[in-house]
Amino acid sequence: MKHHLTPEIANRFAEIALGHVTKEYPHKLDHVIDGPEDVLGPRALHPIFFGSFDWHSCVHGYWLLLRTRRLFPGLPVAPRVKALLDEMLAPEKVAGELAYLDRAYTGGFERPYGWAWLLALHAEAQCHAEDQWAANLAPLAGAFAERFKLYLPKLTYPIRVGAHYNTSFALVLARDWAAANDAELAALIAARAHHYYAGDRSCAGWEPGGDEFISPALTEALLMRRVLDEAAFRDWFAAFLPDLAAGEPAALFKPAFVSDRSDGKIAHLDGVNLARAWCWRGLADAVEPELAALARGTADTHLDASLPHVAGDYAGEHWLATFALLALEGQAA
To answer: At which of 75, 110, 145 does a domain end?
Structure first.
């Protein structure tokens, strides 16, 4: 089945996000306690991003709200979204999030997944010129951009796992922000992408792992598409995945099976299906026509497997709609 983003789907995704971005509990903190004064709840630590089970999911929950509002301004949910954004993306609350980064032991806080999503949130806010959200978020985005600049030169090897620590996924989002906001960071990302991945050949596609939600192979390819020109990318991609036309590596074409959607880690596998759909669609217009058709068909197969499951259990509901939106928005109806 071919899948398209419609106003009805966008409104449903926004309703899902509204249901969790201000839901404080249950919550999984990324927080180092350096003394009894640090024993605080999510809302006390994070004035904006205290919901959605964890900080990074809350960040991209707000990204989803901004993006659906922009793509379909007339959504029934749009007035509620604007009211919440005006309340939450306020200067004093952003200052509270920024202050958290000055605490001890926060150098690895949300690195790099949450960093990248915060930059993506700011980039999306910049598309809403009539509001002050981007201006308010700018200091926080700048702080995470500086963290990338300190981190990437000392990250000798890329992290290839299919979860939050993955390097290529974070660099896709960060590079999109940097291209419009920070030429120094954009150049650094391009240089590090070349360092990490330019020599990769004949990817075996050993994925997914049992709790992964990112495709390391396809996300790497998506990043290289961002940093290489068209001809160079086609050459690199042909060497990286030389047997795609023959359906190999087979794992990249077969949706992951999710055995228990109430298990937060196993539910990640719905995410890998949606993330692969996003990558396949994002690569389709950069490859040969016969591969493009294969890519689009494979994306739809992965969407068939997991799009029906973006809600139903909070283990997935607090984040999956974001990845569904990434996968769908390339073909809006």
So the answer is: 110
Phi first, then psi: what are they for 82, rounded to 5°?
Answer: -60, -40
In a domain, 193, yes or no: no
User: What is the distance in angstroms between the CA of the first residue and the CA of the last residue of the chain?
Assistant: 15
What pLDDT, in 10s, does the model give residues 25-72? 999 999 999 999 999 999 999 999 999 999 999 999 999 999 999 999
Tokens of 188: 């650094």
DSSP state of 106: -
Angle CA 33–318–131, to nearest 5? 90
User: Same structural domain for residues 217 and 324?
Assistant: yes
Residue 331 has a pLDDT of 55
Which domain, by its residues, includes 7?
1-110
User: How many domains are there within the chain?
Assistant: 2
CA distance linking residue 23 with residue 53, whole number of Å: 8
Looking at the DSSP assignment, which residues form a beta bridge with residue 5?
332
Q: Compute and round to an integer the Cα radius of gyration of the chain.
A: 19
d(CA 203, CA 311): 33
Whole-model pTM over 0.90? yes
Query: Where do we find the tokens 């291209």?
Result: 179
Q: Of 253, 263, 259, which Cα lies nearest the Cα of 302? A: 253
Tens of pLDDT, residues 181-235: 999 999 999 999 999 999 999 999 999 999 999 999 999 999 999 999 999 999 9
pLDDT at residue 333 is higher than 60 = no
Residues 42 and 27 sit within 8 Å (Cβ to Cβ):
yes
**Chosen domain end from 110, 144, 177:** 110
